[in-house]
């Protein structure tokens, strides 16, 4: 509970939240059904309302305590992500039904936008507007930022170009739960580690600046020598207090990593999490193999998926490798060998694909290999995250044990000397 002196500030922050909510309510009540999402004034007022709510809520949490504020920063993105994810896949399901039954997409998008509220509904309305101007579906989706993540945009473009859009949509819906479960686990573990690190850093800072110097003075007054482990803690405390700026870059990097992870989790940033690119190689291989399967089922030349991937794949380093593989194929290298040489698929995948192409079963083999790569990624990601998590917990345990012994052993020695 905040102190009495902070109550006026908390009330001010709460009033900011109420004011922002009032703006959002007024926009919803006064806007007509046809134009409420397309009017720029309504968009501006809606952004102002949410900005006031976020600023007031953040200030209220900080006034209430740093730990509630940090916890809220972890919980709020998860809630936003879950809500958007549900709406996004509901939209994909509606689009799949429309494509399957040859229903025009524009009325479906307008109906979806009128039935739902929030970010995805507004983006669906914008997508319908772009389609009404005559843009092809892939270009219209690319012109509406934030509607779908990059992997879904790529799949929709490839499906549209080959006439396999209905199958692609069904595949995206079937794979949604497994992929999102791994991403959520990685995000949860990263945020848990950073949150625990932040809390421990605050505790250690307070201990080193306030408790350890007082401890040292008490023992000097009693003329009792401190144990060696406590002397080590005193020296570390002295270094931490006088050279704290040396750790500032690492703290800033951790905060930037936490912010980047959060923005990627909620879909505002699409770059890969730093340091996890090696772990996602199998996911990239699965995406490439899925696209190849789509083009093979459509009886299109195998150079077309490579050209499309080299142009549209969302990850820059993979796109560069695909461009080099496409150049290799144009120079006469077999496409399987080109992908394997550029480390886009494994040598085992290359052998299976070459054999499947000889017997005319390439589409099925590519799909199965894509599923296999996703399973390998799931297993490796889970194992890596859990292993790193256990190692970090052991390191934290050693730090806690060190501080416990450094603070507790002197008390035993002091009591023994007094008795």
Describe the structure.
With 419 residues, the protein is an all-alpha fold. It has 16 helices and no strands. The chain has helices spanning 7-30, 40-64, 66-100, 105-115, 119-132, 137-142, 150-162, 165-222, 228-242, 248-265, 281-297, 303-312, 316-330, 335-341, 347-358, 362-418. Helix 2 (40-64) runs antiparallel to helix 3 (66-100). It is flat.
Low-confidence regions: 32-38
Integer-rounded radius of gyration? 28 Å
Discrete helix count = 16
Q: What does the main sheet amount to?
A: none
> Tell me, what's the shape?
flat
- Average pLDDT works out at 78
The helix/strand class is: mainly alpha
- Secondary-structure element series: HHHHHHHHHHHHHHHH
Query: What is the percent of helical residues?
Result: over 70%
How many angstroms separate the termini?
A: 42 Å
């Amino acid at each position: 509970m905040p102190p009495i002196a902070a109550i006026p500030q908390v009330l001010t922050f709460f009033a900011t939240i109420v004011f922002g909510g009032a703006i959002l309510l007024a926009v919803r009540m006064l806007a007509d059904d046809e134009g409420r999402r397309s009017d720029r004034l309504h968009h501006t007022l809606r952004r102002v309302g949410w900005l006031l709510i976020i600023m007031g809520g953040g200030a209220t949490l900080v006034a209430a305590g740093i730990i509630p504020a940090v916890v809220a920063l972890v919980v709020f993105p998860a809630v936003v992500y879950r809500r958007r994810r549900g709406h996004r896949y509901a939209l994909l399901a509606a689009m799949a039904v429309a494509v399957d039954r040859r229903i025009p997409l524009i009325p479906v998008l307008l109906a979806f936008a009128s039935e739902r509220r929030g970010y995805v509904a507004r983006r669906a309305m914008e997508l319908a507007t772009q389609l009404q101007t005559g843009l092809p579906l892939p270009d219209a989706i690319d012109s509406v930022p934030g509607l779908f993540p990059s992997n879904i945009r790529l799949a929709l473009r490839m499906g549209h170009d080959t006439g396999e859009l209905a199958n692609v949509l069904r595949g995206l819906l079937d794979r949604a739960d497994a992929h999102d479960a791994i991403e959520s686990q990685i995000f949860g573990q990263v945020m848990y580690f950073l949150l625990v690190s932040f809390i421990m850093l605050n505790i250690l800072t307070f201990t080193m600046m306030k408790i350890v110097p007082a401890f040292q003075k008490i023992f000097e007054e009693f003329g009792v020598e401190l144990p060696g482990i406590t002397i080590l803690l005193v020296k570390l405390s002295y270094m931490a207090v006088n050279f704290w700026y040396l750790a500032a870059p690492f703290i800033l990097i951790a905060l930037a990593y936490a912010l980047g992870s959060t923005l990627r989790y909620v879909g505002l940033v699409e770059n890969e999490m730093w340091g996890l690119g090696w772990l996602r190689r199998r996911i990239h291989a699965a995406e490439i193999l899925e696209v190849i399967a789509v083009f093979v089922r459509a009886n299109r030349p195998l150079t077309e998926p490579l050209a499309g991937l080299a142009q549209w794949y969302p990850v820059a380093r993979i796109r560069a490798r695909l461009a080099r593989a496409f150049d290799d194929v144009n120079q006469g290298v077999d496409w399987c060998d080109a992908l394997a040489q550029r480390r886009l698929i494994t040598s085992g995948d290359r052998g299976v694909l070459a054999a499947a192409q000889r017997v005319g079963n390439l589409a099925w083999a590519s799909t199965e290999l894509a599923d296999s790569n996703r399973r390998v990624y799931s297993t490796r990601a889970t194992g890596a995250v859990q292993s790193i998590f256990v190692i970090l917990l052991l390191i934290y345990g050693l730090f806690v044990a060190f501080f416990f012994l450094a603070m507790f052993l002197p008390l035993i020695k002091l009591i023994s000397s007094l008795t």
